[in-house]
Write a structure and sequence with these properties.
The chain is built from 18 helices and 25 strands. The chain is α/β, with parallel strands linked by helices and 539 residues long. It has three domains: 2-178, 3-Layer(aba) Sandwich (Alpha-D-Glucose-1,6-Bisphosphate, Chain A, domain 3); 184-406, 3-Layer(aba) Sandwich (Alpha-D-Glucose-1,6-Bisphosphate, Chain A, domain 3); 408-538, TATA-Binding Protein. A hairpin with a 2-residue loop joins strand 13 and strand 14 (289-291). The relative contact order is 0.11. 1,6-di-O-phosphono-alpha-D-glucopyranose is lined by residues 17-18, 112-113, 276, 280-281, 343-345, 362, 364, 366, 484-486, 494.
Amino acid sequence: MINIVKTTPYSDQKMGTAGLRKKTAIAMQENYFENFMQSIFNTIPALDTKSFLIGGDGRYYNTIAIQKIIKIAIANGVKKLYIGQNGLVSTPAGSHILLKNHLDGGFVLSASHNPGGIDGDFGIKYANASGGQCQPDESAAIYEQTKIITEYKIAVCDDIDLSKLGTMTYENTEIEIIDPYQDYISLMKTIFDFKELKTLLTSNFKFVFDAMHGVTGPYAQKIFEDELGAPHGSILNANPLEDFGGLHPDPNLIYAKSLVDLMYSDNAPDFAAANDGDGDRNMILGNHFFVNPSDCLSILTDNYKLIPAYQKGIFGVAKSAATSSAVKRVAKALNIGFYEVPTGWKYFIHLMDSNRITFCGEESFGTGASHIREKDGIWATLFWLSIIAKTKKTVKEITLEHWQKYGRYYYLRNDYEAIPQDIADKLMADLEQKLPSLVGQTFAGYTISEAHPFIYNDPVDKSSTKNGLIVHFKDGSRIVYRLSGTGTSGATLRTYIERYVTDKLLEEPETMLKELSDVSRTISEVTKYTGKQKPDIIT
Ligand code: G16
């Protein structure tokens, strides 16, 4: 039986950088999730010919929300649903499943690196047939639907058992519970030399991977322990938990603190990686060494020839504007295309689909390639291990040699969190207004050469997107300002600061960027607008 339920719109269902992200309590309001799902289906024609993937990172409310999607999809006459066993699918594996099966879209229930639980965050990433997150025109159409929705359709049936693989049919909808791991593992085997990696991981080489109680735990156990022979116990925090065991599943120096402490201890392993809740973000650490994500993209690109899948050559490389300029120098040296896009992995998709790029990455701990249309934490880990296996060098040696070859971009991101939205909007609007007048001015010895909004013109669909403000200095340094699109309370001002040097390669970023951090505050007048004397988070 199908129920048609009368509802009233919520006004706050606009997607951000990567889908809809809300406090869990907000997402659990009456009809909130149902409204959003029905609004998505309202924008998709001929649902009886369409197939979708459903999965998630295992966070609180996922199992309830997955049953809701299933019932709303059945009621809307969707042709087929592929659902990860136990409701689990990582964002990268989901992208692969979508592409491999030529699906029309997918829903990964995740607020990514944000904490989970009843007091945490909940989210929905909606991918289209490209295998990556929907484009801005699609999310705009969905937002319009959320504002006028009056009813949704939902099937009245028992909950589906997600624990057993197999196929069933309800009304006209076929439902298949799929293994979320195997296809992804097979894909990794087509890219990397598993034999060589096994030799490394069964040697004296000490490896750990922190899954932060997100969805990548089982993937990592199967790949690194079962396939590649790393000792059992190499995967830390391996079981997905609804509240991530109280952790904030964000793989950075602050939230992956216990892993960082281990890597800076006397017992430090040779290599560590961490992934976020849904497995798209990664952090790479060596013994007493941290690899900045911008450098990570640059180093992987420079070493592409070491990976079997890329030995015949790569297309270009892309980064978000906020990411450091390091990879630009590598692209020039390799004589490959280089692109700079707004923040958001969705902006890389057209570049991959049109064979303009093979690799891409962002400062927000994301690196990936065109094997899928999402960033991929395990792929980045396997890539690093492959470089180590081939070169027999440590993470620090590989990075230092890279800086000796190309110079180093010292890089920091300063986040000012929980700013009232209207104040953050005013700060950005006022800053944009004054940018032209800044050109030629000198702050603490840094002279501004250019200052403008970042505008991206997509070479494929010709759309134009404005995202953030950039201040360039004569010595090649840059400051980028933008508001985050993934937060769930108030606004976050992100200030990205970079400085290029060819000597002093092993200093602390905080030391090398002290003046520029001060300059970033002087220019934005963040203290005047927010009362904040310093950033809440520095990464
Ligand atoms: C998402 C996007 C990324 C983006 C990041 C940060 O990552 O997929 O492309 O760089 O958010 O966005 P913002 O600076 O707007 O907060 P994830 O891992 O959260 O899905």
